């Protein structure tokens, strides 16, 4: 798939695709005429990147998972086990974030339910 097709399939600009390629997040083969040729799986990988970013992960965090996802020269069983371990770690991190967000949400809801005079945010803006 050429860069224009991948951009259209994913809604990601060509400039962003080139940036991802420069960072090593995306790989393309070069055809005889020099055009980039992306594998079909590139669209799925880009959707993963965008979803992870939307959930608050940085490109650096996403890049940390990349060697596991692209390691084709190693033993498939050990690569699969390493990937499962990385996914378990990511799930645990997401669960910790969810727990923290639930605590924050409960605190905000409690403050909104409190009389304004008792609300530290209101007191700080009133003075």
From TrEMBL:
It comes from Pseudoduganella guangdongensis. One of its GO terms (molecular function) is DNA binding. Residues 1-68 form the HTH merR-type domain. Gene3D superfamilies: 1.10.1660.10. It comes from the Bacteria. Keywords: Coiled coil, DNA-binding, Transcription, Transcription regulation. The keyword Phosphoprotein does not apply. Pfam families: MerR_1. InterPro entries: DNA-bd_dom_put_sf, MerR-type_HTH_dom, MerR_fam. Residues 84-111 form a coiled coil. The keyword DNA-binding applies. The lineage of its organism: Bacteria, Pseudomonadati, Pseudomonadota, Betaproteobacteria, Burkholderiales. This is MerR family transcriptional regulator.
């Amino acid at each position: 798939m050429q860069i224009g097709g991948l951009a259209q399939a994913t809604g990601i600009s060509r400039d962003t695709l080139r940036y991802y390629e420069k960072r090593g997040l995306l790989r393309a083969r070069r055809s005889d005429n020099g055009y980039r040729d992306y594998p079909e799986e590139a669209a799925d990988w880009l959707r993963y990147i965008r979803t992870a970013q939307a959930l608050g992960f940085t490109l650096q965090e996403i890049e940390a998972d990349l060697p596991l996802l692209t390691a084709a020269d190693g033993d498939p069983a050990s690569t699969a086990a390493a990937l499962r371990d990385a996914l378990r770690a990511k799930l645990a991190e997401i669960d910790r974030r969810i727990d923290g967000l639930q605590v924050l949400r409960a605190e905000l809801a409690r403050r909104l339910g409190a009389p304004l005079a008792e609300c530290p945010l209101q007191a700080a803006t009133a003075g």
